[in-house]
Design a protein that fits this description.
By secondary structure, the chain is α/β, with parallel strands linked by helices. About 35% of the residues lie in helices and about 20% in strands. It binds glutamic acid.
């Protein structure tokens, strides 16, 4: 089997060292196995994606010496695929429209919490006659979705994925609650688009940061519901700033673009990252 990895940035800001670290790992894993490495621009969020960020991403990757194979893929040009997946889940009775605002959900005293904050309390689940002219997103009815899965001998539903670092992981999508699959302001959510695309593009190894580990529980469920293959996952450690939290803009680290424009050698920087020589104050961390 030919290994196929991807780097899938959202062009909502300039890339920084943490992105370089992730892109290098996806690129090198493919190259080490004579495989393919592709670039997917995750630009379904029309309000936050900017062409100038895309331009910088392409230049940054070239500067780092991370050439990709084939044409760049754009999620904004693949909306029909996400719509088809939504249609399929809707046809199975697994989606419902939700009219709640963030504030509504936060205000719900009974909202339980999952790994990514407040879980949706189910306010709009089972509405008799939803008025679809009002702004709404589409949520997965998690309890129903789990019932749809083939049951195993003990009455348990067994969904697993292979993770290069964590081993065999048993998926627990219920912990994420009724996740959003189509947003109010975008025709698909991250969870849906990424799962559909990884399958449609034949990605064999999803190399990405461990911050997305919790999302994989949901992606594994969507694969089962949509009849899609499960790739192998390699959730790598993240780069963290001096305070131990995931490296971000607020740490004041320069963007890759700023380093590039300052005349730094991108390939030498990539080599240092590969060798684990991180700038002062930056460390690799497990979560
Ligand atoms: N687009 C996502 C991000 O920039 C990453 C998607 C993924 O690797 O699954 O955080």
């Amino acid at each position: 089997m030919v290994i196929h990895t991807r780097f899938a940035p959202s062009p909502t800001g300039r890339l920084h060292l943490g992105h370089a670290w992730s892109a290098i790992q996806a690129h090198d894993h493919a190259r080490a196995h004579g495989g393919r490495f592709t670039l997917r621009i995750e630009d379904i969020d029309g309000t936050r994606s900017r062409p100038a960020h895309v331009e910088a991403i392409l230049r940054d990757l070239e500067w780092l010496g991370l050439g990709w194979d084939g044409a760049v893929t754009w999620q904004s040009r693949r909306l029909h695929l996400y719509e088809a997946a939504l249609g399929r889940l809707r046809g199975q009775g697994l989606l419902y429209p939700c009219f709640c605002t963030r504030a509504d959900i936060a205000a719900s005293a009974s909202a339980p919490h999952g790994p990514e904050g407040a879980l949706y309390p189910g306010t709009c689940r089972g509405l008799e006659a939803p008025d679809l002219r009002r702004p709404h997103c589409w949520r997965l009815d998690m309890a129903r979705a789990l019932q749809c899965l083939p049951q195993h001998a003990g009455g348990e539903t067994e969904l697993c994925w292979r993770d290069a670092h964590a081993g065999c992981v048993r998926a627990d999508p219920a912990a994420a609650g009724d996740v959003v699959l189509a947003r109010k302001d975008a025709p698909a959510s991250y969870h849906l688009a990424v799962t559909v695309d990884d399958a449609a593009q034949g990605i064999t190894d999803v190399v990405r940061g461990v911050d997305l580990f919790a999302a994989t529980h949901v992606h594994r469920l969507l694969q089962a519901l949509l009849g899609l293959p499960t790739p192998e996952y390699r959730h790598h450690p993240l780069l963290a700033g001096p305070d131990g939290t995931r490296l971000a803009k607020r740490h004041g680290a320069p963007s890759l673009e700023a380093m590039r424009l300052a005349g730094e050698d991108g390939r030498a920087l990539a080599e240092r990252l590969r060798a684990g020589q991180l700038p002062v104050g930056i460390a690799a961390t497990g979560a």
